[in-house]
Amino acid sequence: MQNSLINELNEHLTICGEAYDLVQKENRILNSPTPRDAYAHADRRKELLERVTGSMVRVKAHKALWGQLSPAERAKSMDVSNLIKQNMDLIMKTVMLDRENEKMILQHGMAPPDRLPSSRQNNPTAVAGMYQRHST
Fold first, then answer.
1. How would DSSP label each residue in 24-35?
2. Between the CA of residue 45 and those of 7, 49, 94, what are the distances in Å?
3. Where are the alpha helices (DSSP H) in 1-136?
4. Residue 70 contacts residue 6 (beta carbons within 8 Å)
5. What are phi and psi of 91, to 5 degrees?
6. Which residues span the domain enclosing 82?
7. Rg, Å, the chain Cα set
């Protein structure tokens, strides 16, 4: 069980590393004179998303078995703990950089209109009016 979990965590780390590399590449493009080229990686992004999703399903299957082990047994498996930490750290770095990329996409006016937040979202008067209309 432990070896298969280690294999799944290593595979997940590899896929997350590829996703981080892609997000870094997109960040470099968004900071370049031709930021619109960032969309050239949309197919790669979708493919990686599918791989990450599949990998997450496999890791979650092992997580249930891992959770059934006693704390003493889990403490003996530092490899698993280290891999979990590495995965979490890499995922956090990827999410933070991707958020930065999203901000740059908005700044460059590259976000599709259907993905933009509603203007009402930042208008307290509109929200108050909505509450008032629905409270009666």
1. HHHHHHHTSS-G
2. 23, 6, 13
3. 2-30, 42-68, 71-75, 78-107, 124-134
4. no
5. -65, -45
6. 2-134
7. 21
> Nearest to residue 79, comparing CAs of 5, 14, 1, 11?
5
> Based on the structure, what is the number of domains in the chain?
1
- Tell which residue, 126, 131, 93, 101, has the closest CA to residue 37: 101
Which pLDDT value is given to residue 131? 67
Question: What mean pLDDT, rounded, does the chain reach?
Answer: 84
pLDDT in tens, 118-129: 655 566 676 667
Count the neighbouring beta carbons within 10 Å of the beta carbon of residue 27. 16
Which pLDDT band holds residue 117 (cuts at 50, 70, 90)? low
What number of residues does the chain have? 136
Q: Which of 1-5, 12-16, 77-81 has the highest mean pLDDT?
A: 12-16
